[in-house]
Amino acid sequence: MTLPLRGRFARLADELREDPRIDVLAVELPAPASDAQIAAAATAIGEPPDALARFYGELDGFSLRWRLRDATDRGTVELLPLAELAKDWRGVTWFEDHDDYRGVRPWDFFAPEACAALVDDAGGGGLRGTVHYHYLGELLCDTGHGIDAFLDRLIAARGYWYWIETLCPTMLGSPEAQRFLERMPALFGDFDAGLFAPAG
Q1: Which of 187, 153, 158 minimizes the C-alpha distance to 71?
Q2: What is the pLDDT of residues 44-54, one digit of tens each?
Q3: pTM to 2 decimals?
């Protein structure tokens, strides 16, 4: 039986803590989003997809930072609280004179300049069902993976730095994607490279 998401994230943090090669720098497993928070967010993002509702029904975000001792390998997960996801991202992902990314809502804000994002449907139908990779002001890529599939891969990747680029067709050859695919088998014996490709 698959653990609930809270249990899976807690186990991930514990496994990293127990690895003598790794320093875990930060972990935060918040309480679930409240009914009031969910209702307030729905006015901004519409009815959330079922997978997103399940996530926030278990925890209102998740943070993890780790690094490998004596090496440059590191990982960061910064799944934002629901209120942050639902806020107006003017001045961050879009600007009045350049609103191409107005519908982009950072979700896993793992770096100051990049995130996994959810995107408002242009027709006003709420959030699209797939997770996107967004490099602020420059790139938006639909990974083709839904929220559940993305979370599965996030956990399998341990939030390794820029792992999401392996899910973006235009970024497969990037140095970050290649380093992730080269280093992970050496770091973690259960690594499954087959998970890390664009969907479809």
Answers
A1: 187
A2: 888 888 999 99
A3: 0.95
